[in-house]
User: Fold these one by one.
Assistant:
Number 1:
Amino acid sequence: GESVGLHLPTLSVQEGDNSIINCAYSNSASDYFIWYKQESGKGPQFIIDIRSNMDKRQGQRVTVLLNKTVKHLSLQIAATQPGDSAVYFCAENISNTGNQFYFGTGTSLTVIP
Amino acid sequence: DVKVTQSSRYLVKRTGEKVFLECVQDMDHENMFWYRQDPGLGLRLIYFSYDVKMKEKGDIPEGYSVSREKKERFSLILESASTNQTSMYLCASSLWGTGSTDTQYFGPGTRLTVL
């Protein structure tokens, strides 16, 4: 399978600060990416997605950046809140492989009040 | 909102038992998936289905089978449970058919323990 990895397994931030979570992917044919949030004991929750014809997409307090040159994806969370504490992982879909995704192992974000 | 439900949040079974995990989605999605999630390994695809009565093996199908008799329901079956199948099992669904890509929506997960 494809290798989708995260640079840091854990991240601690102060409440109110911005958080940046990174993800590296290895297949240049990957054309669709999703960030998920998974709280303890729950299933993954869709946060934001981006297609390879874009390099930035913004949602509510979240921004995803895609750098295809270095095959890097990041999730930025503005004004991090205690409710943002969770595991975040990225998923990539490789063009023409149908609806199969490859998932990273995740970064655990802890927000310090 | 998309809703994916799984029949149990927690299950405890004994080695050798036959185990059924049920998943239902209410958004008329064509695609359904079963993953297992283990610490340090991320999500690994067991089986998926693009249509009723259709199934495809994922990356780790050994020891599992699936059934999709109705579009909204996708069942994962452990014919003879083993301790190495202790894991969190996640079901997901997505909208489009083969060759397309769309967001996968997940259920809450079933934490299965095999003793």
Number 2:
Amino acid sequence: IAGITQAPTSQILAAGRRMTLRCTQDMRHNAMYWYRQDLGLGLRLIHYSNTAGTTGKGEVPDGYSVSRANTDDFPLTLASAVPSQTSVYFCASSVLASSTDTQYFGPGTRLTVL
Amino acid sequence: KQEVTQIPAALSVPEGENLVLNCSFTDSAIYNLQWFRQDPGKGLTSLLLIQSSQREQTSGRLNASLDKSSGRSTLYIAASQPGDSATYLCAVRFAGTASKLTFGTGTRLQVTL
């Protein structure tokens, strides 16, 4: 069982380009999340999805979009990348079972926008 | 605003020492609090989850406590080892925020020989 996989591992991107970060989980979890991690700011939620077909905005959604066509996949798209989107991006998933909900994290994607 | 704070940002201790990491949060209405470990360049690994109704959780040499009324949690690590060196993150699921976790900025722990 792989858990959560993310691709690519790292990417250098020119400003203005479109980029999709991929996330796949094989645990049949209902909920999935995208976070970005920046030095001194910790992890901040970008978007989330409580179940396939639904998505919601997190703390820092501007410049990002997501879709949840099925249970396993939750891609994050940067329509037109800007340097401030340079960060490490983590995908996570959880069963979404009230007070015992534990989130499981992928290995991350390191994105540099020049 | 619902916030989570971890102090200190970094800590260095000699091997074998018992240590405590601190986490504070601004709203006592929470579903749960979770402690994670993050190794350099890696993702997060869940260590312990304490539900709102619980006071503590234990796993091996780790013990996490929760005091909602004071908005505090501690992670106690017994007999520290060099392999414990990592960043430890505290995250709170505040009530009314669905499944959203609010993270602290972490404490970077180094255990020296």
